[in-house]
Amino acid sequence: MMPTCPLCASPHPVAYHRDARRDYLQCRQCELVFVPAEQRLGPDEEKAVYDRHENSPDDPGYRRFLSRLFEPLAARLPPGARGLDFGAGPGPTLSVMFEEVGHPMAIYDPFYAPDRRALAARYDFITATEVVEHLFAPGAELERLAGLLAPGGWLGLMTKRVRSAEAFAGWHYILDPTHVCFFSEASFRWLAARLDMAVSFPSDDVALLQRRDSPGDP
């Protein structure tokens, strides 16, 4: 079957890069770079990689890493804003950081916290740190998350961004076999337009998307 973009569903992607393990295609509409479906890991193989992660809220280095999203997003939230950490992983930490400053948090992870009731509530903000590059269907997942946001709510995404084909060829980020989607700034701008959200980029690997208060708001 002809592959379609997992973000915008456009057909006819173009070849972007190939290494010894995988092919990488680029969408001509949203510029997402992605691995063909048949070259992805199965769920057991994928979880085996995640099980090796040793992230913990007791690790100061991991907290500093997450602060690249935490700090700009926390600065934009009203007191008591309620959040969801989507893809929290085996050692939820960002949720702890937000709770420490007064934001009630829920968590969801398909492997480690799979209670889907968390995906049926309404939130003032949703975070996904180092998550979107793992998603097989990022378009559908991110649209669903945006639909859980209250008016004016925030979607905070942290992932390293594609810069150029030359940089991509030597990029350590593509060596992780669970990384299958690679966003550029153009991809996030397409997503924001699709979801009718405003987007900003407070750092090289963070995108903040804000839901408009009502149709027609700037």
Automatic annotation (TrEMBL):
InterPro entries: SAM-dependent_MTases_sf. Keywords: Methyltransferase, Transferase. Pfam families: Methyltransf_23 (PF13489). Its EC number is 2.1.1.-. The keyword Transferase applies. GO terms for biological process: methylation. One of its GO terms (molecular function) is methyltransferase activity. This is Class I SAM-dependent methyltransferase.
